[in-house]
Amino acid sequence: MTDNYFNSRVKFFYFLLLIVAAIFSVNSAVSSVVLPKVKHELKGYEELDAEPIRKNQQRIEYEFKTADIQKNGGTLGVYDDHWEFTAYADGEEIYSRKSSKSFFCRTTGSSWSLIETPRNSKKISVVFTSTATEPFNHNISFISGDRLSLYRNILYGSVWQIILGLILSGIGLFMIFHWLFVVRVSCKGVYILYFGIVDLLLGIWSILVSDFVLLECSNYVAVYFIGHMCLLGISFPLIMFTKEFY
């Protein structure tokens, strides 16, 4: 393989690197400007301002009037960040999200839950609990509406993250196979392989930790674990890419 041919491959790699940088730039712009406007225009839900009625270090309770939820569509959307919680309608349990006993990890992850509320109830209580010693964080949100509107809202909030993940995974796979079947014979450009692995792992992580995937997947603990293991696994190929490229 001639030096000119290899140099053209290096330029092509720089082109791919530019695409990845452009993807992240567009993602930032879309996430901060476009998506909020789209979600506002298609908004079919109401955000619920909730103040805890009971709270200590390992337990916090919120309460809502069922009539307010039914007026908006009858479905309560709950976003929690690594906390177990149980929802009650007039003291009767209607939904529970517990930490899994999976060998992967013991966490509920960070995701939305959609809860159908009984029409004949008067109040809905949501109780968050944790066995951790750290105090509760404030990353808890409540919305209400019909189930389809809430589902659509979560999908729209995750769609660009999923698209970004698919693009990065595709570029990563292309670079890996390009090195294996084209560049490898020259014994050069191994940094292309490492950068392809970084892209692939970033893409998988971006897809797996999106709210929509976590909402749809029954084994959310395994999905959450695999996603974050991909993120942790980036370090070695990134170091090797830096070493080989520079």
Task: Describe this structure as you would to a colleague.
With 246 residues, the chain is α+β, with helices and mostly antiparallel strands. Helix 1 runs antiparallel to helix 3 and helix 3 packs antiparallel against helix 4 (190-208). The chain has a 5-stranded antiparallel sheet with strand order 2-3-8-5-6. Strands 1-9-4-7 form a 4-stranded antiparallel sheet, sandwiched between helices. It has 7 helices and 9 strands; from the N terminus they run H-E-E-E-H-E-E-E-E-E-E-H-H-H-H-H. Helix content is 54%, strand content 21%. The model has no long low-confidence stretch (mean pLDDT 78). It is elongated. Strand 2 and strand 3 form a beta hairpin.
Question: Which labels suit this protein?
Answer:
246 residues, alpha+beta, five-stranded antiparallel β-sheet, four-stranded antiparallel β-sheet, 7 helices, 21% strand, elongated
Helix-strand blueprint:
Elements: H1 3-41, E1 45-47, E2 54-56, E3 59-65, H2 66-72, E4 75-81, E5 84-89, E6 92-97, E7 110-116, E8 123-129, E9 141-145, H3 147-183, H4 190-208, H5 211-216, H6 220-232, H7 235-245
Strand content: 15-25%
Strand order of the largest sheet: 2-3-8-5-6
Low-confidence stretches: none
Number of helices: 7
Number of strands: 9
The residue-averaged pLDDT reads: 78
